[in-house]
Amino acid sequence: MNEGIVRKDVQMNADVITTILTGCLVVAGLLILISIVLYSWRNGISPMPSPIESRAAVAAELQRLGPYGTLLEAGSGWGSLAFYLARNCPGWRVTGVENSTVPYACAWLRLGVVSFLLSWGLPSRPDQSLGKRLVFRRADLYEWPLEQTDVVVCYLYPAAMKRLSGLFHERLLPGATIISVCFALPDWQPERVIVCRDIQRTRVYVYRA
Predict the structure, then answer these.
(1) pLDDT value at 198 more than 90
(2) d(CA 97, CA 73)
(3) 55 within 8 A of 81, measured Cβ to Cβ
(4) Residue 194 phi/psi, 5° resolution?
(5) Helix, strand, coil percent values for the chain (each to nearest 5)
(6) Where are the beta strands (DSSP E) in the chain?
């Protein structure tokens, strides 16, 4: 009799815990979704990973510019482009700036996990120092000190490019490079236009300040 009561109590407790955990996951999921929607509405676009072909084109352009330098990704989203550039251009220091909380947190956590795993006695490789060359910052892109970077990489949208156009004129040092994926920079004449070999024939625009 007592054994049956104990089993029933255990089952009830397990059901309560399961219900609480499920509720917490649902609430967390809703909060994450609300955060993404709100920042997408505020920014005018949702964070989207860059096409893989364009990442390769940007990396090749960086390698053409030189073996090292400082790079700012303006609106780094989930961090896919920043990670690709840091891995494939090991002489460059990459800073990803993003104001949306969830994509920034995911990129930051991913970098922490990758850096931790790479520190566990793995063979020497270019991304061994990833944690020293790649950082993510949650900040307002339009307030960022552009004077401190050699290259700015953008995968944004027309309204943001229009707003950045004047800021680049004002803040970038002479000789700095702007690389924009998909969208041209208003009032700027590109130095080079690279057409990727993907289905969309994505264009990568290269400008010189």
Answers:
(1) no
(2) 6
(3) yes
(4) -100, 125
(5) 55, 20, 30
(6) 69-74, 92-98, 134-138, 151-154, 177-181, 192-195, 203-208
97: left (phi over 0), alpha (psi -120 to 50) or beta: beta
Residue found by looking up tokens 């004002």 in the block? 170
Residue 114 pLDDT? 83
3-state class (DSSP) for residue 177:
strand
Alpha-carbon span 176 to 208, nearest angstrom: 6
The strand pairing partners of 94, in sequence order, are: 71, 134
For residue 109, the Cα-to-chain-centroid distance in whole angstroms is 12
pLDDT of residue 131: 77
Residue 72 pairs in a beta bridge with: 95, 152
Average pLDDT in the 28-51 region?
53
Q: pLDDT per residue over 49-103, tens digit each?
A: 778 899 999 999 999 999 999 999 999 989 999 999 999 999 999 999 998 888 8
Indicate whether 31 pLDDT > 80. no
pTM for the model stands at 0.76
Rounded CA-CA distance 146/167 in Å is 8
Q: Give me the phi and psi of 46, to 5 degrees please.
A: -90, 150
Pick the closest to residue 101 from 68, 135, 78 (CA basis).
78
